[in-house]
Design a protein that fits this description.
- The complex is a heterotrimer of chains A (about 300), B (about 140) and C (about 220).
- Chain A is α/β, with parallel strands linked by helices and about 300 residues long.
- Chain A contains 12 helices and 8 strands.
- In chain A, helix 6 crosses helix 7 and helix 10 packs across helix 11.
- The longest helix of chain A has 17 residues.
- Chain A starts with 5 loop residues before the first helix and ends in a 9-residue tail after the last helix.
- Chain B is mainly alpha-helical and about 140 residues long.
- Chain B has one domain.
- Chain B has a two-stranded parallel ribbon.
- Chain B starts with about 20 loop residues before the first helix and ends with a helix.
- Chain C folds into 2 domains: about 120 residues, Response regulator (Rossmann fold, 3-Layer(aba) Sandwich), CATH 3.40.50.2300; about 80 residues, no CATH class.
- Helix content of chain C is about 30%, strand content about 20%.
- Chain C contains 9 helices and 7 strands; from the N terminus they run E-H-E-H-H-E-H-H-E-H-E-E-E-H-H-H.
- Classes of the chains: A alpha/beta (about 300), B mainly alpha (about 140), C alpha/beta (about 220).
- Chains in contact: A-C, B-C.
Chain lengths: ~300, ~140, ~220
């Protein structure tokens, strides 16, 4: 093993991995994290905490991860390059290491125009691929970006995100190759509703053998309402929601739309398990975290393996 | 046609309203005129193709300046008619004269200050309640 | 060229409140080309300022001058006979011009009539777009002639991000995704395979504004 990460062990064992995520509160109440963590005990191999997602100020990812670690989880610290320069990023990586974290997910981050402080200065000193390189170099060579030695270098299992549904499609596999070249260990994808397009992307991934270098965790999100599906289709960039999904939700009995959404999610997971190159699933149920256990159970993913 | 139009309307002829610069309109008001309007050919009939379109845009630009400094943007206007439409010419002259009369003399002459409220304020100078302001 | 646009009139008038005798200085350089601060704009702004004052029953003397440029000391010098007689200079050159005036005429306040925006060019009449951020280390030969620092909202060197949709940036459907443009261009140049998967290294921001105010010197040209 390259790190002490539980996720790394599960993936290495060949078992289908399960991760989920947790959105921290817009305040300093640790109970919010603890409650979300409670619903996920025994359900996941690792748990992400988002980093000021959609550029809205929230409790920091590292702080939230500490709370989850205290509960026995193996957290995944998410880091965007939007808000911090290379000095702060390397500093936070050292700190996360000191606090016992084993996983980092490297992202560019949503532009601050989306968030609650659109006037903020835009940092983007380095991009997500350069961040992957940074964490990788720390682990493999024990060096900072400037080449100087790190006294006790942290060893992280390195993740990144990839969106098979963003444009231009033709470079989405080369982009994964680029991240693999930078040293990424695992990828979590944007949530999948269009299985055909995802299959197409996976085909390209497998053709280049990338699935052996990088573990792909396919993203899924249960639809709660028809409105949510429509919103995601129309207003979220890089989101591909086929009309068939919306029609299925519309066809559900009143009060049962959420149940149908969960059913679709479970079916998606079952299909993903059959696909070559898919090493696990990343279940994102932001503000509906209590449903993740139900989904994992229905999809036959429980109990989680002992490693 | 020998029709009569209000004597307070002075005509300045140009070969095309495209010749009218935003500056002429502003200088007209600076000199104390209570209003100035631009009468151009019907859109699509401009002999120079787009002269009257440009004029309209410049009138719009000047209206915005007037709005920003607190003078009624209605003191400048753009009209379109054909050279053959004598009655329409008179109608416009009368209409514009009436409008200016209702606005009163230009504040340039009276020195009485803003004649339109600031954005976000009512005519009485009170701040509009937040909700309304945002709706605007 | 440097692109700017006139500050809101209300803001300019507020700046001018303490004064009744000013110079309004335009510039025949960049700001004339982007219709913000040339001779024509000087005339219009001067008229607007006088109208605004007169409606309040007050007056203001606005001396209208348009200099060749406001970024060369020789041209700024041309105001030396009149600067002292006026209470302030309202400059509608770019921020550089305002600063040159302030530096040269230390006892005459220099006021900015424009908001200076960016380095760019005309896309069509009346529309100007940003193309360069002055990072001091140009990589356009590696990106098909399209700047990733400027055209990508996140200045990614290894883009695009996951928010690129139908060639548009996630921040605004009117903004093109810089990396979509780069990829399309590299493709048409037959360079996509060769260049795309190479990881662009960390940018050295020292050469840009981040490194502090910059000076460029040509020793061979100095007296």
């Amino acid at each position: 093993m390259k790190t002490a990460s539980r996720l790394e062990k599960v993936l290495a064992s060949g078992a289908f991995a399960v991760t989920s995520e947790c959105g921290p509160p817009r305040g300093s109440d640790p109970e919010v994290i603890r409650k979300k963590g409670e619903c996920l005990k025994g359900v996941v191999d690792a748990i992400n905490v988002t980093d000021n997602q959609t550029s809205v100020v929230r409790m920091s990812s590292i702080a939230s991860c500490v709370i989850l670690k205290e509960m026995g989880f193996d957290p995944i610290v998410q880091m965007t390059t939007r808000d911090r320069n290379r000095i702060a990023l390397q500093s936070d990586i050292l700190g996360a290491g000191a606090l016992g974290m084993n996983n980092i997910l490297c992202l560019s981050g949503d532009h601050q125009r989306f968030g609650d402080h659109p006037s903020a200065k835009n940092v983007y000193d380095i991009d997500s691929i350069q961040l992957i390189q940074t964490v990788h170099r720390m682990r493999e060579e024990g060096k900072f970006i400037n080449g100087q030695e790190i006294k006790v270098a942290p060893k992280f299992f390195i993740g990144a995100a990839e969106n098979p549904f963003a444009d231009p499609f033709e470079i989405r596999v080369p982009r994964l190759a680029k991240k693999a070249g930078a040293g990424v260990d695992f990828i979590q994808t944007q949530c999948i509703y269009n299985l055909d397009k995802f299959r197409l992307w996976m085909k390209g991934v497998v053709e280049r053998g990338l699935h052996q270098k990088v573990k792909i965790l396919a993203g899924v999100t249960p639809m709660k309402t028809v409105g949510m599906a429509r919103y995601m289709k129309a207003s979220v960039p890089g989101m591909d929601v086929p009309d068939a999904i919306i029609d299925r939700l519309k066809g559900a009995a009143k009060g049962k739309v959420g149940d149908e959404g969960i059913k679709i999610c479970v079916e998606t997971i079952q299909q993903l398990r059959e696909m070559e190159g898919v090493a696990g699933v990343h279940i994102m149920a932001i503000e509906w975290e209590e449903k993740v256990k139900e989904i994992a159970e229905a999809a036959g993913l429980l109990p989680r393996p002992q490693v | 046609m020998r029709m009569e139009y209000p004597s307070n309307v002075k005509i300045i002829r140009v070969p095309c309203t495209g010749k009218v610069d935003a500056l002429y309109l502003l200088k007209a008001l600076e000199s104390g005129l209570d209003g100035v309007y631009v009468a151009g050919c019907k859109e699509g009939d401009c002999h120079y193709l787009k002269g009257n379109i440009r004029a309209r845009k410049r009138v719009g630009y000047v209206k915005q300046i007037l709005q920003d400094i607190g003078i009624s943007p209605e003191r400048v206007a753009m009209y379109n008619l054909s050279a053959a439409e004598g009655p329409r010419f008179v109608e416009i002259a009368r209409e514009f004269t009436e409008k200016i009369r209702s606005l009163g003399p230009s504040p340039i002459r009276t020195g009485k200050g803003r004649e339109i409220p600031r954005p976000g304020e009512t005519a009485a100078g009170e701040k509009k309640p937040e909700g309304e302001h945002q709706a605007a | 060229m440097i692109i700017g646009h006139r500050k809101p009139l209300e803001e300019i008038l507020k700046m001018l409140e303490p004064f009744d005798k000013i110079i309004l200085a335009g510039c025949k350089g960049c700001v004339a080309v982007c219709n913000a601060g040339g001779e024509k704009e000087v005339g219009i702004l001067a008229s607007a300022i006088r109208l605004a004052r007169k409606k309040d029953g007050k007056d203001i003397e606005v001396k209208e001058i348009t200099l060749e440029r406001q970024c060369d000391p020789e041209y700024i010098d041309q105001l030396q006979n009149v600067a002292g007689d006026h209470q302030a200079v309202l400059s509608i050159a770019c921020g550089v011009g305002v600063q040159y005036l302030a530096e040269r005429y230390k006892s005459t306040p220099a006021l900015p009539g424009l908001n200076t925006d960016f380095m760019g060019g005309s896309r069509e009449q009346g529309v100007w777009v940003e193309r360069c951020q002055g990072c001091g280390n140009c990589v356009l030969h590696l990106t098909g002639g399209i700047c990733p620092i400027t055209r990508c909202s996140k200045s990614l060197l290894n883009g695009p991000c996951g928010g690129s949709s139908k060639g548009k940036c996630e921040i605004n459907p009117d903004v093109e995704c810089g990396w979509q443009l780069i990829i399309d261009r590299l493709k048409s140049l037959g360079l996509l395979e060769a260049l795309y998967e190479q990881i662009m290294p960390y940018k050295d921001w020292l050469t840009s504004r981040d490194g502090g105010p910059r000076t460029i010197t040509r020793e061979d040209m100095r007296e």
